[in-house]
Amino acid sequence: MIGKQIKGTGFRGCLNYVLGKKGAYLIGGTMCGQNVEQLTAEFAIAQQLKPNLKVAVFHATLSIASAQKLKDETENDLRWRAICADYMKAMGFDNNQYIAVKHADTDHDHIHIVANRIRLDGGVVDDSWDYYKSQQIIRQLELDYNLETVTPSWEIYKKAQTTGEYRYSRSKGDKSVRVQLQESIDRITQDSPSMSEFVERLRQQGVEVQVSLAKTGEIKGISYSLNGVAFNGTQLGKAYTFSGLQKHCNVSYDRERDCPQIEVLMQQQKLGSVIVAMPENSQLASEVVALLSHSQTVNAESNWNDIWRQFVNRQQSIPQPNSQQQKQCDREIELD
Fold it and tell me: Which of 5, 122, 280, 332 lies in disulfide reach of 300, CB 3.0 to 4.6 Å?
């Protein structure tokens, strides 16, 4: 089974698409409405519980291969209704408005689900990492309903650990840097971030990101470094290259929007730490800490020798890539 989901702001547009397809029909859900107008009005009632929530629409599709479709249409629809109910409950939509609509416009047998993230008790369904969560639920549904297992695209394009990495991580009881990087990228791309947001999120997790630019200003490649160990995108797998992030990990890229922001992030990364002397509890100090993601505070009573000693000790505790690793990373990123 393959599942996809997106979030939006307007129910009417989503309903027009889902119900407007030739041959589309409702097969289940928790609502009374039978057409776009009725359902839009019904969704609007629950939206009054959280009027300031902008992204209230949850739109998902679930599909299976045509060979797995049951011959009896009624039985097939009943199975889809049960699958949908199980899926929505596992995703946290156990007290929400939603509809399930059957489509027949492709070879794959599939349904569309339109749901309200606002719960009828006034809460909101958490959408953190929902794409990753959805895949786990789908794997369980495949077992429950005896459906063919489909490997997610990012798993197909993910490079496995080397034998040496596997043995080392097993002996140390910890994951290899390759796996840590792959899992971090998988987690932070679940809500389809922009490329600049992607780079910033990795930096916040202690991952250094390097990008290479063509003479035209376009990004050619991307590389990652954690705890002094560097991998280019290809070494992690096709899904982790610059183009793969967009194709397989739902990272959006717009040159005019992202390149200037990424250049700023790269400059901040090169600058590293900066010592700024000012009253620790001042408004300006709090603004500097908010602006500089890697800023550090020291004891307000410290003299300059103490401040410098604290700074050096902290820097020495951070693993740094050696010159050979950095040169190798620079060469490989050009080829990514």
Answer: 280
Q: E strands, 132-251, where?
A: 208-213, 219-226, 229-232
Cα–Cα nearest to 29, from 87, 74, 73: 87
- Phi first, then psi: give them for residue 137, nearest 5 degrees: -65, -40
50, 53, 58, 59 alpha-carbon torsion, rounded to 10°: 120
Mean pLDDT, rounded, for 150-161: 72
pLDDT tens-digit series, residues 105-148: 877 899 999 999 999 999 999 987 777 788 889 999 999 999 98
* Nearest Cα to Cα of residue 80 among 104, 95, 100: 100
CA–CA separation, 296 and 43 (whole Å): 47
- How far apart CA 274 and CA 151 sit, in angstroms, is 46
Instruction: Read off the pLDDT of each residue in 22-47 and give the average, rounded to a whole number.
Output: 95
Segment 187-214 mean pLDDT: 88
291-318 exposure pattern, b = at least 16 Cβ within 10 A, e = fewer: eeeeeeebeeeeeeeeeeebeeeeeeee
Tens-place pLDDT, residues 49-100: 999 999 999 999 999 988 899 999 999 999 999 999 999 999 999 999 999 9
Q: Are 31 and 7 in contact (CB under 8 A)?
A: no
Rounded Cα distance, 170 and 167, in Å: 5
Among 104, 100, 127, CA closest to 192? 127
Using alpha carbons only, give the angle 117, 118, 120 rounded to the nearest 5 degrees.
Answer: 130
Largest Cα–Cα separation, the chain: 81
Which residues, 6+ apart, have CB-to-CB distance to 58 below 8 Å? 5, 7, 93, 98, 113, 114, 115, 116, 117, 125, 127
* Helix, strand, or coil (residue 29): strand
Six token digits for residue 177? 């840097």
For the chain, report the end-to-end CA distance as a whole number of angstroms: 32
The pTM (predicted TM-score) of the whole model is 0.55
